[in-house]
Automatic annotation (TrEMBL), chains A, B:
Record PROSITE patterns: HTH_DTXR
Main location: cytoplasm
Family label: Belongs to the DtxR/MntR family.
Protein name: Transcriptional regulator MntR
Signal peptide annotation: none
One Pfam family hit: Fe_dep_repress
InterPro entries: DtxR_MntR_Metal-Reg, Fe-transptr_FeoA-like, Fe_dep_repressor, Fe_dep_repressor_sf, FeoA_core_dom, HTH_DTXR, Iron_dep_repressor, WH-like_DNA-bd_sf
Amino acid sequence: MATSFAEENYLKIIYRLSESTLEDISTNAVAELTQTKAASVTDMLRKLAEKGWVNYQKYQGVRLTEEGEKIALSVVRKHRLWEVFLVEKMGFNWDEVHEIAEQLEHIESEALINKLDEFLDFPKTDPHGDPIPNKEGILPELSYVLLSDLKENKACVLMGVAKDSAIFLQLLTRLNLSLGAKLMVKEINPFDRSVSVSINDSEPVFISHEVAKNILIKLG
Amino acid sequence: MATSFAEENYLKIIYRLSESTLEDISTNAVAELTQTKAASVTDMLRKLAEKGWVNYQKYQGVRLTEEGEKIALSVVRKHRLWEVFLVEKMGFNWDEVHEIAEQLEHIESEALINKLDEFLDFPKTDPHGDPIPNKEGILPELSYVLLSDLKENKACVLMGVAKDSAIFLQLLTRLNLSLGAKLMVKEINPFDRSVSVSINDSEPVFISHEVAKNILIKLG
DNA sequence: ATAAATTTTTAGCCTCGACTAAAAAATATT
DNA sequence: AATATTTTTTAGTCGAGGCTAAAAATTTAT
């Protein structure tokens, strides 16, 4: 079944919201990200449910079905591959590409996206560090990710460090950062790329980009 | 003023039709190329006229205004640059790219299209030999074009040959092809790329691709 | 446990861009 | 010149995807 531009956007946004929680996604949350009103979202969710792409019960929120997730992943794949293209080949900065990729992600051509993937040398992540699903819709296992590449509000666990100099490890200790610590990036400050991180659900503390890029973490 | 997907398509198609005639473009001609019905075209022409992009009087056909032509040229520029990209960088064949370019031509980003132009080394023509407007919307003067690169139903004049071997010129003479002859390609046969050409308004004759690609012509 | 506040849904309406059927204008034919 | 044919426009309708205002359900607070 063909998917419209609008449908693809809804599925993508529900997917994104599902990444950071196991709960059902609320109508309002979707409305905020789609830049529409709750009433419009309700309409669309009913339509998506009819097509079998989401499970939706009134007042109960929404979740993607397996089929819906497949479509969402293909949109996400296209979005992220185009972002790599824009940065690596077109020379855009990482902060300029989102809006353009929002348009390019709806171009319909399996052949094109697979050729693009090859042209870009099958990248595993986009310029923001988000993983790119392969053509089967499978997200690559990113065993280790740098804390500096993590998005806001993603749960993760500290798995190691990329530098083991004494002063660096002393700093980590002082910040209460130890192996196995549960981390969540609450805020990324564009000015100096410093991050505000909650450690084991505590109040967030500031960590410089220099430190963050030497911390290895595992998602989830 | 922002242009919708549909509006851009109409302007582009009116532009294409205007290329091969000086007369006003008929509602039916537009309907055929947009794959819509005449009634729908009438509606849209009224809207385009209101926005100042076409001159339109009921029953009199339509022409682009200067502003309308500017928009059309920017869509054509995008379409043709993306076609070059698809063939040169993505490895598509010249006959596979039209549908994908029909989608890509509506991506809205001046910055992207100019970077793409640069990435492709400022090509003058697309893979089908059509000229690519520059960023000011000016079509390059293609002083000489190969007959083999010409589209169907474009008037042109024989301006020279790319090969001057005796047997080649003898063949041209036999076909009544001489300098200054008025030519129009009536049909391109995909099988062997041979062309059926009307010479000085005569009944069309068949010319092989091998011959056509050695004939230099001037448009118009 | 009730009342208050918030979230979600319903109902009705709007614009865009298409459609069909019928009317009107333009063009072609005798 | 009158009639037949073709082209174009008008009138009315439809679906997609939005909106607002009001109603209903859920959640939070007292």
